[in-house]
Amino acid sequence: HLKLVHRLASTAEAAIVVAASGMCEGGRVVTYLEALLPDERNDVLFAGYQAEGTLGREIQEGASEVDIEGKKIKVKAQIHTMSG
After folding, report:
1. Under 8 Å between Cβ of 48 and 84
2. pLDDT of residue 68
3. Residue 33: which residues within 8 A CB-CB, separation 6 or more?
4. 72 vs 50: CA distance, rounded Å
5. With the C-alpha atoms ordered 72, 24, 80, 39, is the resulting torsion angle positive or negative?
6. 55: how many CB neighbours lie within 10 A of its CB?
7. How far apart are the C-alpha atoms of 80 and 48, rounded to whole Å?
8. Can you spell out the DSSP letters for 17-31?
9. Sorting pLDDT into bands at 50, 70 and 90, what band is 6?
10. Cys bridge to 81: 7, 38, 46, 58, which one at CB 3.0-4.6 A?
11. Where is each Beta-Casp domain found (predicted)?
């Protein structure tokens, strides 16, 4: 999946990536967020609730910068939440 992450981050290729990890605290989603959040051409869609104190909640609430694995990552992507 790292090849895909790097390809998406370095091209203007359109894609939809579904990456599970409920609160963005681990797993593949963290790698995708680190690579794709800084680019304003990207959109991140949360499918519902993000628990307080999690990376997902921080992004969902409009943070302009987040800490991912010790790195400061600017949030320029558009953030959306589906409620249901």
Report:
1. yes
2. 97
3. 24, 44, 55, 59, 66, 68, 73
4. 20
5. positive
6. 22
7. 10
8. -----TTSSSSHHHH
9. confident
10. 46
11. 2-59
Q: DSSP of 28-77, one letter per residue?
A: HHHHHHHHHTT-TT-EEEE-S---TTSHHHHHHTT-SEEEETTEEEE--S
- Cβ neighbours of residue 80 under 8 Å, at least 6 residues apart? 43, 44, 45, 46
The residues facing 74 across adjacent strands are 65
Q: Which domains does the chain have, with CATH numbers?
A: 2-81 (3.40.50.10890)
Report helix angle 2-10 to 28-36, nearest 10.
Answer: 20
Identify the CA nearest to 45 among candidates 27, 59, 31: 59
Q: Which of 16, 44, 15, 47 is nearest to 30 (CA)?
A: 44
